[in-house]
Amino acid sequence: MSTTTHFRTCPLCEATCGLKITLDGDRVTDVRGDRDDMFSLGFICPKGAKLGDLDQDPDRLSSPLVKRDGRFAEVSWDEAFAEVERGLAAVRQKYGNEAVALYMGNPSIHTMAGPVYNGVLAKSLGTRNIYTASTSDQMPKHVSCGYVFGDPFSIPVPDIDRTDYLLMLGANPVESNGSLCTAPDFPGRLKKLRARGGTVVVVDPRRTRTADLADQHLFIRPGADAAFLFALVHTLFDENLAVEVPEIVHGVAELRVLASKFPPETVASACGIDASAIRQVARDLSAAPTAVVYGRIGTTTAEFGTLSSWLVDALNVLTGNLDRPGGAMFPASAARATYVKRKPFRTGRWSSRVRGLPEVAGELPTATLADEIETPGEGQVRALFTVGGNPASSAPNAPRLAAALADLEFMVCVDPYLNETTRHATVILPPPRLTQSPHFDFGLTQFGVRNFANYSAPALPLPAGRPGEAQILARLVMIAAGQGASADLRGLEEMMIGGLLAKAVQAEGSPVYGRDPAELRPMIEGDGPLERWLDLSLRLGPYGEGFGATPSGLKLATLLENPHGVDLGPLRPRLTEVLSTADGKVNLCPAELAADVPRLLSWLADRPRGMVLIGRRHLRSNNSWMHNVPALVTGSNTCTLHINTEDAEKLSVTTGQRVLVMSRTGSIEVDAEPTDKIMPGVVSLPHGWGHDQPGIRLSVATRTNGANVNTVTDESILDVLSGTAVFNGVPVEVKAI
Ligand SMILES: Nc1nc2c(c(=O)[nH]1)N[C@H]1C(S)=C(S)[C@@H](COP(=O)(O)OP(=O)(O)OC[C@H]3O[C@@H](n4cnc5c(=O)[nH]c(N)nc54)[C@H](O)[C@@H]3O)O[C@H]1N2
Ligand SMILES: Nc1nc2c(c(=O)[nH]1)N[C@H]1C(S)=C(S)[C@@H](COP(=O)(O)OP(=O)(O)OC[C@H]3O[C@@H](n4cnc5c(=O)[nH]c(N)nc54)[C@H](O)[C@@H]3O)O[C@H]1N2
Ligand code: SF4
Ligand SMILES: [Mo]
Fold this sequence. Notes:
It comes from Kibdelosporangium persicum. Residues 3-59 form the 4Fe-4S Mo/W bis-MGD-type domain. This is Anaerobic selenocysteine-containing dehydrogenase. Keywords: 4Fe-4S, Iron, Iron-sulfur, Metal-binding, Oxidoreductase. Helix 5 runs parallel beside helix 19, helix 10 crosses helix 13 (275-287) and helix 20 (489-506) packs parallel to helix 22 (529-540). The mean pLDDT is 97. The protein is of the alpha/beta class. The protein has 28 helices and 31 strands. Among the domains are: 1-56, 2-Layer Sandwich (Phosphorylase Kinase, domain 1), CATH 3.30.200; 65-127 and 382-429, Rossmann fold; 139-332 and 574-598, Dimethylsulfoxide Reductase, domain 2, CATH 3.40.228.10; 609-736, Barwin-like endoglucanases (Beta Barrel). It binds ligand MGD (2 copies), iron/sulfur cluster and molybdenum atom. Residues 106, 137 line the site of molybdenum atom.
């Protein structure tokens, strides 16, 4: 066998590290950081280093599975798709399109195929029962940006490479490597920030490894971030520190009135932070030459996630740091056209059937999927498609959802593993190995701390007869659209490309405005449908060659010539290009967001005072699906309950002791790990563990020691505005066993 070297972008987390992968024949023999990668400069983490083990995991499914008489059987791809066609038709015939739901999980944004096909799949299923991991994650940020900037997908990122002061809440990038902020070697960038004289402040109920790197760490009581951020806004006004905002911003006076209800002295005890410390943060933020506030999971999967997400940006505006170097800036993705006119954002265009929860960005809250499956009546969900998702592990009150999945009449999963979710499937359609798949980050190029683009061609060809993830999804689209399991996929491609071209030639400001799509179509290059879609998106994008308009501009060929990626430079101010509000201004105090403030005020008056549970992430883990790699799960058990040493003493709990964690929804047993790194009154568990269900095929993961924290998270508590699950600040009781 011959040895080959491949430069690829790691698709596992949001950091987009460049990897140098060595293959001996079709086996990965070595993975290291690509020192020539223009963005990651050789950085790699343990997950990336073990990408080979993940790639050739023997438990990865090599052919589709169909469940017959309760047992999975390997079938051919044709049989599997025929089964999908039959099963879907049967459910639609009996109950109609709304009886079919679609859930798209985290990897469906990390693959190249997901962002291209998921929207089309949702459309062709013709159902409003669309769910994603976003409502277990970042949806609050979409909602706040939707109202403030008019576009839920224009999310400013902290310009960490140039800022003088970073205030970070509910994020632990030393373990997670960052989120909604693509910054390979985030820890190194924080060190550089400090080395150039800047300041890092971390607000977290735990003293994390990121906090250890920071100048200042403030313990905050879970769920109190919105109150804390309001108190910062209050202080800026109260001490005359807010800048004179430009004319493009309105709503300052209204925000000031709201903030007047949150003096630091009033919220201090709820936050667990002294009023003087809150005021000092506001002063430091305003005094820094440039500064930026950044909030992540700890602030979004919380009861006031949308308010916190909003106030993060409000602070960036009021300190003069929005849209300027060193502040919060909008990346310009090479593959996202900037000429598209967007309709002003709103939510609640429809509501969920059972709980009446508003639609947000075209989807319904994952926290209510179990309701929709369990509750009889017109529109009851009887079939489910999942793409790269493991909701039976990741959703709040996951055991309830798992039981509901078991009750479905038909379920199709596009997933490489037989796991907690897919064991309930009728059909499992496994995508191929990572090394057999092309890669481009349609999603993450929107969140880079630099503008960048890189494409990875498959390192290995697909085995004969095996479809790539794009082909799997395209087939599902054709089946859902009634074209049948054996329809010609080129028809779909031409429809998708034709649709994008037709819009582009009609859009003023597009590089191809007024041209003829028939003249443009033959210019699109690429080996497969994903590559051609990428080529088209790059050509129409902000750096694109525009079908000849800017000959030196980007197209797929440029990325092919640059296997270490193309650096498109530091972020540049582009607020006016981004704004999509009805009046073209930044709405600093949207009525929809202001309407949620009374709920925060009543929470302040009547908040949970007992023990609350929060989450945490571990560097060697990635949500629920990387526990099958031996090298990532050896060593000490990481699924332990962090509990403050004083609390542990009061409960007579010692290190390694089994404890029971109980909530409204259920209870789990885990090992305790008393530590002074977590504040009193708070306990923490990582998610994604507990692989002991019958019938799953994860030989390593099933032997790991851990429980699913989502047994005790509560699907009835939501961030109301976004429908996002609350994983941080769940009232629990802890008892020694
Ligand atoms: N190694 C690894 N990397 C990952 C993942 C993984 O599972 N493992 N998952 C990926 C995914 S899907 C995502 S979304 C990102 C998430 O990336 P991050 O947002 O950085 O996620 P976490 O590391 O969980 O950090 C969240 C922090 O919030 C704190 N926190 C909890 N409750 C509160 C609160 O009420 N207020 C405040 N201020 N803080 C609170 C927690 O203690 C924790 O330190 O990571 C991605 N990267
Ligand atoms: N308690 C608690 N719960 C949480 C969180 C928390 O912090 N605390 N975090 C939440 C967050 S931020 C997120 S993003 C969600 C994640 O929620 P999900 O996306 O539902 O769950 P994952 O664990 O990411 O599962 C990913 C699935 O994709 C499959 N997969 C892996 N690679 C591929 C691929 O290339 N193609 C396809 N089609 N499938 C693939 C895996 O086998 C697995 O089944 O979890 C949420 N749940
Ligand atoms: S930090 Fe993320 S992108 Fe980089 S090597 Fe690790 S898992 Fe891959
Ligand atoms: Mo996430």
